Amino acid sequence: MPKGYLAIVLHAHLPFVRHPESETYLEERWLFEALTETYIPLLQTYEGLLRDGVDFRVTMSISPTLAAMLSDELLQERYSQHLSRLIELAQMEVVRTKEMPEYYSLACAYREKFLAIHDYYLFYEKNILSAFRKIQDTGKLEIITCAATHAFLPLVWTEEAIRAQIATAVHHHRVYFGKAPKGIWLPECGYKPDIDKVLKEYGIEYFFVDSHALLSAKPTPVHGLLSPIITPHGIAAFARDEDSSKQVWSMTEGYPGDFDYREYYRDIGYDLDYDVIKPYIHPEGIRVNTGMKYYRITGKSDHKEPYNFAKAREKAAQHAGNFMFNREKQVEHHASQMDRQPIVVAPYDAELFGHWWYEGPIFLDMLFRKIFYDQETIETITPSEYLDIYRDYQVCQLSMSSWGRGGYADVWLRGENDWIYPALHTAEQRMVELANTHTNVDRETSRALNQAARELMLAQSSDWAFIMDNQTMVDYAVKRTKYHINRFTRLYDMVKTNSVDETWLARIEEMDKVFPELDYKSYQSSYPVVRYEETKNKLCVLMLSWEFPPLTVGGLSRHVYDLSRYLVKNGVEVHVLTMHVDGCEANEIVEGVHVHRVHIMKPDGGEFIHFIFQLNLMMVDACSALVKSGLTFDLVHAHDWLVTDAAQTIKHLYNLPLIATIHATEHGRNDGLHTELQHKIHQQEWELTYEAWRVIVCSTYMRQEVEQIFQLPHDKVDVLPNGVDRKLLTPRHDVEASKAGYADDDEQVVLFVGRLVREKGVHILLEAAPAILAAHPKAKFIVVGAGPAESDFRHMSTQLGLGSKVLFTGFVSDEARNRLLHSADVAVFPSLYEPFGIVALEAMAAGTPVVVSDVGGLADVVQHETNGLKMYAGDVRSLTNQVNALLGNPDWAQNLANTAISQIDRYDWDHIAKGTTKIYQRVLVERETVHGWLEAASATLSATAEVGDADESQ
């Protein structure tokens, strides 16, 4: 029995390129080169292994678009003609190089290879899918599918469109290969939560992700990358092994870069004199690769030596042996540490083997033979066979991920290609609309609907965005995207107006002839479509916020949650657009608030601005979907700069007044603007306040700040404080104020709650701790929260020798936080910058004495020695004195806390919601007044113009 397994996975895919109108499209050569250099050589390798009795396993995904091209009669005939020209070229080269021994043997070898490929192609009657199917039926090759047109699924907007891609792929796979696929190659390894739910509907058992996707799963996989995990919907996810990937893929460390291998970039299509090569290149004289290359890589300079096939074959055998040896050692190392035999998953683009790496098929041939004959540590296996061995796989939640640069969609959503997604998302929604509203139609309309689905799918191909990013055949990729979207739009209009142009439709059906059995009904919603009825007497508000519970990064999440639900209690209909959270529904009602969560990649270091762009793009699409569903908004309310672009777009797109709440400023947070990123954020903040009809802030301090740094007129800004939840108003003597798990019963708790960033002043509290402990040895400092400065603060606590006297809890639940607020002796908020400080208000509402910095909104909330104590911001001694005063006089401290409770009503959310509603109503009245004035002015100008015209005519 082997100690472990190796799964070789080859992803074979090309975008659908078929141009019956012309034979001059260079892009058709993509298929011809792949057939000659990869697909047929791989098939010949597999058949050779079978013929010699070698037991092997390989998994190949054959994308539905590639399968469609391989089975297309027009392309089959054109490839046959291409092969004939290649053979003619090789014969010419045999003659030309007769007296050139270093090239003659190569020319002869190419001629024999092309003849063998031609014979092989004709043997299978020009349809090599039957060859793949024959090898599949031996059990040595497992063929899996891909999304229908290789759409990058994380950026597909609707579940219906994802379902259509999968449904079409599975159906046509069954047609091509006689059985349903057990696995799927998600295009670009692109995954987002709930895709597994759709895969489950269509019987898919497994898919693949890049290594970082599994390593960041929740909980962390106990077997790392060497065993699949199971998603919440029961689909297995296999991860790419990093070591085996590097050995083949890496430009610097990978085998294909060996100096003895064939040089890809030296082809006779470019090397020979133009008059010699002219008959064998593009009809318009464009030089192209012919596949005949006479040089080896040689080195990193431009100097190249002749290629020696025998030496390259020997090197491929050595590399196959090295690869096998490394997998043996890898398996041996991990097998003893696991409760199962590990599986090493090595996925690659199939075109690497033969096309890019000429010796690739030889490497695979040698590898399978060596594994079979030369060792007993590993065996090759398919993923489905491995899943049959064990039944107890760990269940984990995967986040959004992809392979490629950056690992989170960076290649497919950039400035070069981001323009395609609004058009794609609109088309998706229109296709879903057509499918839901056209269930019984005549044959002509059905043809138009099916072709509309084809055009949408072809436009969704991830290849177009990849090409735009890669800067190769950009014009072609742009044209293909626009052609398909334009054709879809025309078909949509035809169906909507019941005026199908049958002649035009027939021409488009012939041009984009893919998936003959595609059914537009695969776009139908699997659940009733929600239609919102207009509520004329009810104010309807669209609220934009990047965070909303359970996603809580700072105080913004809690503010939007409380404000929105209390607005609902005051008769306002509220729809919140926010970011998706794993485990939450995309659309749900939370305490009367309609919450709509958009799927995007998570912020990741330097990609933060890119994340914000994506968030805003998705918010605009979501708003469009809501409007199409029947909603009419009265105004849009944006919270902070992260939603500026969406707020601006929605404002102008739907002619809505915009309200903006500024919770903090980049200038204030950083005491100025010092970096390029800070300047960008400041510009976004300025644009939001400029576009807003009114700006809401939470304190008089913030009013002064925004008026100054954004040059806002005084009468454009409203001050509404943050609120506190009434649940915290229960006096501490009515609540079990337990310190259990955090401090001993006799310890005096000094509590901090907030984000662990420097501006919150945690370092000031830590510096004050030794002096406080000197006066009150029973003091215990509890720091609740998480943030980028946490490790710095922990290190600082160690350096100060505070030991067990400081407890960093990390992020805690609301219940645990509230228990700590009730049980603390003092709550300290030593902020250097604080627009409001809602958590200080919550501590006061819980009956806990507070010490706050005399800055920002905290200065509005706390009156020194009346309802709490103030300290000078950044002053360690001042903080020490205030905390010692409260700990040393608990009765006085309690009196301050009682006063705070008695004053808390002005921060009641019901009161704040009523104030917000008044601002909404004021804006709507002002807007009507302005519109009336503009209409009157326009009428006056028109009348004046008519009089002027009359006078002139006289």
UniProtKB/TrEMBL annotation:
Residues 7-396 form the Glycoside hydrolase family 57 N-terminal domain. It comes from the Bacteria. InterPro entries: 57_glycoside_trans_central (IPR037090), BE_C (IPR015293), Branching_enz_MT3115-like (IPR040042), Glyco_hydro/deAcase_b/a-brl (IPR011330), Glyco_hydro_38_N_sf (IPR027291), Glyco_hydro_57/38_cen_sf (IPR028995), Glyco_hydro_57_N (IPR004300), Glyco_trans_1 (IPR001296). Residues 424-523 form the 1,4-alpha-glucan branching enzyme C-terminal domain. Residues 553-726 form the Glycosyltransferase subfamily 4-like N-terminal domain. Keywords: Carbohydrate metabolism. Residues 743-901 form the Glycosyl transferase family domain. Belongs to the glycosyl hydrolase 57 family. This is DUF1957 domain-containing protein. It comes from Alicyclobacillus fastidiosus.
